[in-house]
Design goal:
38 strands, about 675 residues, about 5% helix, 17-stranded antiparallel β-sheet, mainly beta, five-stranded mixed β-sheet, disordered C terminus
Length: about 675
């Protein structure tokens, strides 16, 4: 698949405020401040960098009350940053210029690179970072294939912490708000010795959920829906609430004037409610396949108090044009009837019912980083970045917001990673050529485990733990040559090597092996492969124990030119490439679908200007881009052909969806 995308972005920043007194009689007008960025591996004024960058200082974030990385999008054009939905757990959805990813599974890769202190975060899970004690945030738009490497074809987001200074100072801040919001954050900076400093920062954030989970039976007297409450209280709980605590300790040692060593460790603990969601539309009979080939004898997802099946329809939609709910006494905009339970009655094809899930979204995320900067000479600098990180995320999902379990999941994702990057930077040719060369190594070990209860598909199984080890190696070089005092030519190249393995583990919920093939495929007169008379989860037979591999290498490049017409106006143009690494299909239904897929690639053409106008009272930065986007990785979750494949013709449905038992999937 290929996509051509064009667009433009504009960033205008105007600062006003109280003038700073120079003496008793002299004042200066407020101006746009200078922001230093390191997007090209060296310190540069933001306005001298030939890239579309939004850079925000930590002080400005604090003034705006922005404490979450998702809030940065408010001042970054063409950037979308949002918390993950309930289905995908504690993480972030990141898109820049329409390029990104929403699925946190290790088999897939993000399209926007996330970094904290130049340490790469490989998954969307655990990337919803708090902005405590930051020096600045840099949002780089457009492919960063040479500067940031793989998975930054949309752009990259880089967070830089404040370093210890030995100021013997500190601060404390507390916030109280609606829904019992309580935020407390603090920091202190100490001088331990003449050349050793320590900085400690911490934050805790708590807020109640704003969507109420109500028991349908207790709020609708006389209904056929059974109760899920433990008493007379109709409120089962809330969703959308958060409770987190995070801390970071940083040490800075400067044994000589030419050596700067920074060591940091951090820990984040979240014990949240599931993400807030409400049901907007419902229109299904909510029944499993019948017991025989004519689909007669329905098997309801939920049986009512009179034994009849309950459809999933508009009576569970609390608000909006698709609602026929009759509830009163509550704010209908913020109501959910989700129970996080599947009360279906067991039978021979689905013997693992009923199931009950604890509503939660938990995360333990921690790591350490060591950065060493050495001034080898006045013209040569060496930088080493070593990092180790680990997290465990565990979350539940009730997809339909009703007492009827259409899709009920509990998922656990674990990751352990370490990385090493070396950079050698310098200036030669009478300081006309500024260069950086380096290498990068990244090793991650991830596993995904889930109780995947898909009543709409007639399967209920244990997915995993699926091991997904992956590695990335790269060498890179970037340079800027001063053609004149006003003109520069910038170039970069990066060679990357990727590898990823995926192991499939598919079991019944009790850990027993899935039996198959389905009796339906052997000619038994059952209502398809999920009707009574088939073995539980037999559609997944043959997947357990399979492995798949992805291997690839890639060269990315960038060429940019800039010309400063005046101290107030810089014009630049560039062509750059990037890629999102390929991977392996994590959710096959047939062995033939356990295959690898190719990387996405992008070539971007961009031109723009940066200006400081009216004596630096107004900053106006404009960029226009054109993306040639190829081999886009998409997840197919349904098939339009099913509408024409009749309810009993499962063989035809399988062919229509490309779910074949031989040959490549479509």
């Amino acid at each position: 698949m290929k996509l051509l995308r064009a667009g433009a972005s504009l960033l205008a920043l105007s600062l006003t405020g109280t003038a700073l007194a120079q003496d008793a009689t002299e004042e200066t007008a407020p101006t746009v401040g200078e922001i230093v960025v390191t997007a090209q591996f060296r310190a540069q004024n933001l306005q001298d960098t030939p890239l579309a960058i939004t850079a925000v200082s930590g002080e400005l974030l604090q003034q705006r009350g922005q404490t979450n990385v998702s809030e940065i999008a408010a001042q970054a054009p063409n950037v979308t940053l949002k918390p993950q939905g309930q289905e995908l757990g504690p993480g972030i959805i990141a898109f820049i210029r329409g390029v990104g990813q929403t699925d946190p599974n290790f088999a897939l890769e993000p399209g926007v690179g996330m970094y904290i202190d130049d340490v790469y975060l490989p998954t969307l899970t655990g990337s919803l970072l708090d902005l405590t004690d930051l020096d600045r945030v840099e949002v780089l738009r457009g492919p960063q294939g040479t500067l940031a490497g793989r998975n930054s074809l949309g752009g990259s987001i880089k967070l830089y912490s404040k370093k210890p200074e030995g100021s013997n100072s500190g601060s404390m801040e507390a916030t109280y708000g609606r829904y019992n919001r309580i935020d407390v954050r603090g920091l202190f900076d100490l001088k331990l010795s003449e050349n050793l400093f320590m900085r400690v920062a911490g934050v805790t954030k708590n807020i109640d959920g704003y969507v109420k989970r109500l028991d349908y039976n207790l709020t609708h007297p006389g209904t056929n829906v059974p109760t899920f409450a433990k008493g007379a209280n109709p409120v089962l709980g809330n969703v959308g609430g958060t409770s987190s605590v995070a801390g970071k300790v940083s040490l800075r040692w400067q044994p000589t004037e030419t050596v700067d060593i920074n060591l940091s460790g951090d820990y984040t603990r979240e014990r949240n409610e599931p993400g807030a969601n409400v049901l907007l539309y419902a229109n299904t009979s909510a029944v499993f396949d019948g017991p025989n080939a004519s689909f007669t004898g329905g098997r309801p997802f939920l049986q009512g108090t009179n034994g009849a099946g309950i459809p999933l329809n508009c009576m569970f939609v609390p608000n909006g044009v698709n609602s026929c709910d009759t509830i009163t006494g509550y704010d209908r905009r913020f109501i959910s009837y989700a129970t996080y339970a599947d009360p279906a009655r067991p039978d021979s094809q689905m013997p693992y019912k009923p199931t009950f899930t604890d509503p939660h979204s938990d995360l333990d995320n921690y790591g350490a980083a060591l950065t060493i900067d050495v001034d080898v000479s006045d013209q040569l600098k060496l930088k080493s970045i070593t990092s180790w990180r680990q997290y465990t995320a565990d979350w539940s999902y009730d997809s339909d917001g009703s007492p009827i379990a259409n899709n009920n999941l509990n998922q656990t994702q674990k990751n352990r990673q370490w990385s090493q990057e070396l950079r050698l930077s310098g200036k030669v040719l009478d300081d006309k050529l500024d260069f950086t060369v380096g290498g990068f190594y990244f090793d991650t070990r991830g596993t995904f485990t889930g109780r995947i209860n898909l009543n709409y598909a007639g399967i209920d199984f244990r997915h995993g733990p699926d091991p997904t080890p992956a590695k990335n190696k790269a060498i890179f070089a970037n340079f800027t040559y001063a053609l004149s005092d006003a003109a520069n030519l910038t170039g970069g190249i990066r060679q990357s090597w990727d590898e990823k393995d995926y192991g499939y583990v598919r079991k019944n919920p009790d850990g027993t092996n899935i039996q198959g093939p389905c009796n339906f495929f052997l000619g038994a007169p059952t209502a398809g492969p999920t009707g009574i008379g088939n073995q539980p989860n037999c559609l997944l037979f043959g997947l357990d124990g399979l492995t798949a591999k992805f291997r690839d290498n890639r060269v990315d490049w960038r060429v940019a030119a800039d010309y400063r017409f005046s101290p107030e106006f810089l014009f630049y143009a560039q062509v750059s490439t990037g890629y999102r690494a390929g991977g392996v299909n994590p959710r096959p239904f047939f062995p033939s679908q356990a295959t690898a897929f190719r990387p996405e690639t992008i070539t971007a053409y961009e031109a723009g200007f940066k200006s400081d106008l009216f004596d630096r009272k107004l900053r106006l930065n404009v960029s226009a881009f054109f993306n040639d986007y190829k081999n886009i990785i998409l997840s197919s979750v349904n098939c339009l052909d099913l509408a024409t494949a009749g309810p009993g013709d499962h063989r035809r449905q399988r062919r229509a969806c490309g779910l074949r038992t031989s040959g490549p999937p479509t």
